[in-house]
């Protein structure tokens, strides 16, 4: 049976994705005229085909392809939910997902686009839904949440089978509640957001609490 997304398979074969150390975003090699890269993560790149724009193709790095089946299974367990994309199919190196409109919260911060409180509430509800399915909602951060018509859509669920709490969402929620009003409606420079992201990822998790981390950032900002 021929499916709509099959039209993109030849183009996807021209693209290669390579992972990088230190939890940095992947590197993409190759080119296809009818493919547009719409996102990069630490394991995969996401592409939209101009031939079949209703789909997004999450293409994994060669050394990360073991995660394809894992993520497909998470989507299967989650089922139909307004909080997540739809997974239509999985192949050896990529997933076929529903294309989702909207900007990531990371881009909203950069562009000064207002993030309503409803988004925070939606993520809280989504996390509760994930737990009700026997999964663990983690790795939820600014680049994994879309602002879609004033609501939240979470676009990466690959770590929901892992144990433990990385506290990323809890820290983001605190930051929103305590400090977002200081930047709401204002564009924040990319270098600043990216620097904070890297510092957060590199912090000593045993000794640097959320409070210590935020105080350090505020001291640096108010010196400028």
Question: What does this protein structure show overall?
Answer:
- The protein is an alpha+beta fold and 224 residues long.
- 37% of the residues lie in helices and 19% in strands.
- It contains seven helices and ten strands.
- It has helices at 9-12, 66-78, 105-111, 117-132, 168-183, 190-202, 210-223; strands spanning 16-18, 27-29, 35-40, 44-49, 55-60, 87-90, 94-98, 103-104, 145-148, 151-154.
- The strands form three sheets. It has a five-stranded antiparallel beta sheet, covered by helices on one side. The protein has a three-stranded antiparallel beta sheet with strand order 8-9-10. Strands 1-2 form a two-stranded antiparallel ribbon.
- The longest helix is centred in the middle third of the chain and has 16 residues, at 117-132.
- The model has no long low-confidence stretch (mean pLDDT 91).
First and last CA, distance = 61 Å
The largest sheet has its strands arranged as 3-4-5-7-6
Strand content: 15-25%
Helical content band: 25-40%
* Major pleated sheet: 5 strands, antiparallel
SSE class: alpha+beta
């Amino acid at each position: 049976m021929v499916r709509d997304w099959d039209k993109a398979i030849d183009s996807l074969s021209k693209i290669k994705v390579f992972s990088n150390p230190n939890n940095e975003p992947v590197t993409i090699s190759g080119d296809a005229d009818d493919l547009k890269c719409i996102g990069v993560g630490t394991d995969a790149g996401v592409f939209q085909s101009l031939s079949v724009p209703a789909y997004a193709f999450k293409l994994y790095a060669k050394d990360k392809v073991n995660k394809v089946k894992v993520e497909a299974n998470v989507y299967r367990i989650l089922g139909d939910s307004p909080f997540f994309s739809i997974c239509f199919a999985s192949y050896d190196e990529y997933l076929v997902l529903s294309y989702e409109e909207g900007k990531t919260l990371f881009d909203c911060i950069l562009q000064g686009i207002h993030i309503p409180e409803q988004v925070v509430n939606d993520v809280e509800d989504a996390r509760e839904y994930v737990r009700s399915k026997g999964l663990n909602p983690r790795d939820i951060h600014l680049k994994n949440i879309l602002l879609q018509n004033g609501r939240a859509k979470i676009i990466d669920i690959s770590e929901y089978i892992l144990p433990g709490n990385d506290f990323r969402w809890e820290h983001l929620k605190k930051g929103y509640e305590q400090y977002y009003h200081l930047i709401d409606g204002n564009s924040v420079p990319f270098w600043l957001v990216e620097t904070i992201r890297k510092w957060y990822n590199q912090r000593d998790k045993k000794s640097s609490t959320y409070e210590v981390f935020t105080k350090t950032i505020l001291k640096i900002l108010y010196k400028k």
